[in-house]
Amino acid sequence: MNLMYSRPWLFKLLINIWPPLFFARIKLEYMSDDFREARVSMKLSAWNRNGVGTLFGGALFSMTDPFYMLMLMARMRQQYLIWDKCADIDFIKPGKGRVYAEFIITDQLLEDIEKHTANGDKYLPEVVTYIKDEAGDVIAKVNRTLYIRRKKRFRND
C-alpha cells in the first residue's frame, strides 16, 4: 500500500506540494487521522485570478477535485477501485479573498459502499461540496459522482 495513505501528515505534505494544487494556491489545511474529514483553502492570488479580479472558476473546481477519491482510497485501502466519474459546478457568487471547502466521509457513505459493492457491482454515489468564503457564504456548489467497485479478489461472488 502507498505510504501516503497510511500517514495523514505525509498525505497533507505531498498534497500541498503537488504542482496542480500548489500553483493554484490550494492548501490542504486539515486532514483527520482517519482520513474522514478534510479542509482545503485557496487564497486569491495572481496565479488563480481571472480577468475580472476574482477566483478563476477552474481553480475553484480544482480545489475539490481529488479529495473524496483520495480520502476514500485511504479509508478503503486496496480493496476498491475508486475514481471520479463526473462532476459539475454551480457558480453562485464571485470568489474573493480566501475560500474554503470541507470534505466529510460519513458512516452512511461507508456502509452504502460496502452494501452496494459486496458482489462486485459498481456503485456511483454522489457527494456535494460547498465552497464558502470567509464570511461563510456559499460561492459555489460542486456535485461529484464517484465510481467505486470492489476489486475482484475481494468480492463475495
UniProtKB/TrEMBL annotation:
Highest taxon listed in the record's lineage: Bacteria
Alphabetical keyword list: Membrane, Transmembrane, Transmembrane helix
Coiled coil region boundaries: none
InterPro entries per record: DUF4442, HotDog_dom_sf
Transmembrane segments: 9-26, 51-71
Name of the protein in its database record: DUF4442 domain-containing protein
Organism: Thalassotalea euphylliae
